User: What shape does this take?
Amino acid sequence: MSLSLNLTDVSPLQFAVTPNPAPKSDTERAEILAAPGFGQFFTDHMVQIHWSERGGWHRAAVEPYGKISLDPAAAVLHYAQEIFEGLKAYRHADGSIWSFRPDQNALRFQRSARRLALPELPTQVFLDSLTKLVTQDAAWVHEGGETSLYLRPFMFASEAFLGVRAARKVYFFVIASPAGSYFKGGVQPVSIWLSTDYARAAHGGTGAAKTGGNYAASLLPQQEAYEHGCDQVLFLQDGQLEELGGMNLVLVTKDGTLVTPESDSILEGITRDSLMQLAADRGHAVERRAVSLAEWRDGAASGDIVEAFACGTAAVVNPIARFKSKDFTIELPEIPAEQSLAMSLRRELTDIQYGRAEDAHNWLYRVDGGAR
Ligand code: PLP
Ligand code: COI
Assistant: This one.
């Protein structure tokens, strides 16, 4: 998919920029960037844009990162009318900063908005908001290793009222957080808990939207996963595999076919789509289809399924070592990293993201205000 934009979608919004008068010192920032973890520290600025039924999108600003003041009756606090996105900015060896397929995040944000009865942010405003923030906070994007700047656009109902209807006032924000590895152990094979008591989403529900409620529903089963020594939870629906709490699932068969669950209640991951494309470019068969738990169990037992991995913006690609449930455990064969398809696709993807390999699909989009 290309970055070509519909010209009617181009926004005339001008961003007012107010630099933070008290940004973190170079020393404080360097300490944070040396071990950022995931989602624990935030940069000096944020983007804020307001929307109202009467005024449309207005008051676009880059301003000091800080607290939001909300009326206690703001609809989001009661009825969870909220959506978000997650993508990263990467610094290349020449100093330029790029994000990966942000047009796809912009389009998914619009799909999520439609499902949650929120206004659709024009694609160009979404992209501009990233560029404005990254330009302002460029010092927070480290070069080298696999650190990046995680960008979190989000939108919520700010109107104060208690009737249950779509809000007529909405806030859009983008915040940014330096990111290292999502899992504490780095890129190590992880254990996955199969949730049989709880569902994340339902047909006709909000599973395909990136909305806070889906994550709220995943927290209790995620706790259950931790209690069983697992890192993430895998959800099922009607006996079919769906996805993890915050990542998609891909299985690899012994003939090198990549199989990933397809359903109307899964978040369509951009990382997954990109990995499937890279695998197809190498000549692998890729299948997006319903995968039953029975197929998966039988395949793992017979040796037909040789690898499984989790993928998403935050996690990138993480091999899965085992699946546990109340009744059984499925162990996958231990594969040395240099023979793992998951690890080799991970390397190919990150090489493109960090500008170390050719961007044959034109996936990169410059976000530091420099010329493309
Ligand atoms: N599924 C869920 C529930 C997620 O939260 C994410 C992360 O964003 C993904 C899948 C992967 O999506 P992406 O690759 O676009 O980050
Ligand atoms: C992401 O990967 O961007 C997500 O939103 C998932 C979450 C687990 C951080």
Notes: The chain has a mean pLDDT of 93.
